[in-house]
Amino acid sequence: FTEFMKTYNKTYENHEEQERRFKIFVENMAQAKKLQEEDMGTAEFGVTEFSDLTDEEFENFYLNPMLLRNFTPPPLQPVAETPSFTFEKHCDWRNRGAVTVVKNQGKCGSCWAFGVTSNVESQWFMRTGRLETLAEQELLDCDVRDKACKGGYPWTAFREIIRLGGMVRSHMYPYVAARRQCRYPRDRIAAWIHSFISIPGNEFFMAARVARHGPILAMINAKSMKVYKRGISRPRFHSCSPYHLNHVVPLIGYGTSWSSSPGQGSGIPYWIIKNSWGADWGEKGYFRLHRGSSACGIARYPMTALVF
């Protein structure tokens, strides 16, 4: 715990609070140990910057409080095309210039804004060849349907982007991790979308879509990510229920891990997922999740923006 405090520059207001955080830290280490023992992939769990937070604090500050409520996504325009049975075995849109750098939402439940913005950035690149770094703060301030740091839904955010006419660059509307008065400069729009669609919750189809049309958006149960460090996570159902969605993330690629050592991840298919907790978390801000088992509910509500 002392090393954790030094590494992450943690200070507490008094000795009693430090003792309370130490107890929470111990509980999180026990959770990490259990996840490590049960994981069927190659993931490593342990100390992260979130290791002194309770589950409730973690969900309220870094996940999406609105997704924790009962919700029914509205009907979306379905994908009309039939998936091809032949597509790339490995795809990583970072290598093709279609993904902006990892960002940091801070102590704010705004993953919905970061996920949607990342999807729009990539889809704009797919259509125009230009990668723009867009402003999440525009959505926090000007999206009248969602709740800024208190959470939001990707489908309402897409509709708000269409209503606003597009998005501006991030340097023109810097992120402050709080809702402020809307000051959207409509004459400085850098990218826009025409509509958005749902994608069938089939991971074969999802991978084919990513390979041919670029990154897509998904909602997942990210509770175990509080203590995730690296590797391919393949959690058991009871430790990552697909019915407890709480985080919005872009899927920017996929692959398969091969190893010559038995039991060390040989032939494990995975998704490459961009997160919004900064580049110091996970695998330089990314994480990998098993592909093919709808792990953590990743195949329940995939969708994407469309740029014509």
TrEMBL record:
It comes from the Eukaryota. Belongs to the peptidase C1 family. The gene is LOC102362412. Gene3D superfamilies: Cysteine proteinases. GO terms for biological process: immune system process; proteolysis. InterPro entries: Papain-like_cys_pep_sf, Pept_asp_AS, Pept_cys_AS, Peptidase_C1A, Peptidase_C1A_C, Peptidase_C1A_papain-like, Prot_inhib_I29. One of its GO terms (molecular function) is cysteine-type peptidase activity. Keywords: Disulfide bond, Glycoprotein, Hydrolase, Protease, Signal, Thiol protease, Zymogen. This is Cathepsin W. Residues 87-306 form the Peptidase C1A papain C-terminal domain. One of its GO terms (cellular component) is endomembrane system. The keyword Transmembrane helix does not apply. It holds the Pfam family Peptidase_C1. Residues 1-58 form the Cathepsin propeptide inhibitor domain.
